[in-house]
Design a protein that fits this description.
alpha+beta; four-stranded antiparallel β-sheet; binds zinc ion
């Protein structure tokens, strides 16, 4: 049931995160590109800054229905603690 997903922007494997149950996602598993070199992520800081949003960026995410969208982060470490690493039993080999 755990299929790996690749980021449409950089091609890196995306990591599953468990969204907070009280958020609008209601505890769903979303896949997020945690590649700090991802062009989508790198550009996001500039894009938001031009819109007057400081110190905020976003990473590419895919929801359980396969819809791609931005997930807001406030640092390159943000959301990494939500990664379901242990639960999916090691990606790669
Ligand atoms: Zn990416």
């Amino acid at each position: 049931m755990e299929k790996s997903k690749k980021c449409p922007h950089c091609g890196e494997e995306m990591d599953p995160i468990e969204t907070p149950a009280m958020s609008s996602w209601g505890g769903e598993i979303h896949y997020v590109c945690f590649n700090d070199e991802c062009c989508y992520f790198k550009e996001s800081w500039d894009v938001l800054e031009k819109q007057g949003v400081e110190r905020t960026g976003y990473r590419c995410s895919i929801d359980p229905r396969g819809a791609c969208g931005p997930m807001a982060v406030w640092s390159s470490e943000a959301l990494k603690d939500l990664m379901c690493k242990g639960k999916v039993g090691g990606k790669g080999a």
